[in-house]
Give the backbone structure.
Amino acid sequence: MAAPTIHPEGTVLEGRYRMDGVLARGGMSVVHRGVDLRLERPVAIKVLDRALAADPAFVRRFEREARAAARLAHPGIVAVHDQGRDPDGTVFLVLELVEGGTLRDVLRDQGRLHPAAALTVAEQVVTALQVAHDRGLVHRDVKPENVLIGRDGSVKVADFGLVAAAWETDPEDSGEMVLGTVAYLAPEQVTDGRADARSDLYATGVVLFELLTGVPPHGGGDAVSVARRHVENDVPPPSSVVGGVPRALDRLVIAATHRDPEVRLPDAQAFLAAARGVRMDADLPFHPVPLPPRRASTGGSRPLRGTRLLDLGEDGPRTRRPPPPSRPRDDHDDDLPDGTWEGEAWEEGPDEDLLDEPGDLDDDLDEDEDEDEDDDRPAGRRRADGPVDDIDVAIEQIERRRARSRSRRLLAAWLLLEAIATVAAGAAGWGIGLPG
């Protein structure tokens, strides 16, 4: 029987990996923060959707790709520590936990990057891809959500293996399905489902375009129309969208995103050589990557486009989603990614002091006054200094307490002024009544 998509916190897989909160949820997997109990280290645990875990052929491909990804020992690639299958049917991958966020988080925070920082990201992504390509492994889904930025500024490519396993089809279905995120798909992935190292470079060129401009070159519209634009339209030079982009960077983006893969940059080494030339021509020194903002809530960031299946029939591409999770939809789904994302990034947890910073509430309120306020509180509402279910209610309570405190202070000040005025008037009258 297939395992549920979401596991309760505290679940232990294979007697070793304890699962904690959900970091990200995609169309094919769920990623939990976890702990390797044997080694006592934090990890990320990617759990396959149970519809996929119930497919023996897919699981075999997934396990094979996981073994290949585990051999990619490089600081720019999220490490694969283990893969397993729990007796209850759960198929999972144990990954390096990267504290920080994704390149998408950085883009949302910054809008777009300085050209030197954008080039730094592209170089580090391609350096990681080169390691994979040299071992015959193609990523197939390079996008900002799959580039993790650590708190130390490190750049790591995530999600090797799962997409590659899902990409493969039975021989009779070959060429009729393509998997990827449409905003970054190479034309050959759309037209006939094939992908190689040059397809990853195309996606990296699109990511570089977005880092420089703040928008993807073929964004907007539904998935099918975006996919068709990759086939029918060239990626424009970034300088045609925003100012301040050196022409040398324009040339790099265009060279990486030629629609014809035979004309495109042939491999990662050629991309990196071209990037070095851009640095010299445009005088762009190495620039650190901006750190992702610290998040105040869990759930992961939402990608621009989720991973989709495009059915390449005679009538052209038609969108197909991966098998839907076998679970009821909940209220948090809109806050979670809908693409295949490693999700090893993460939040520092909710700010427990968000509503009760020192000085926010007046400390001179005594217990009797608090109890009086409790009498005024509508049924079902909680005190602002206790657990709060509704932020609006909490803010309302805080503002009410502040208003009462201000009123008391104003009253005290008024009484003090009245007293001073009375004393002054008495003193003046007493002085007037003295004999001369």
Q: What stands out?
A: The first strand starts at residue 12 and ends at 13. DSSP finds twelve helices and twelve strands in the chain. The mean pLDDT is 75. The CA atoms of residues 138 and 180 lie 12 Å apart.
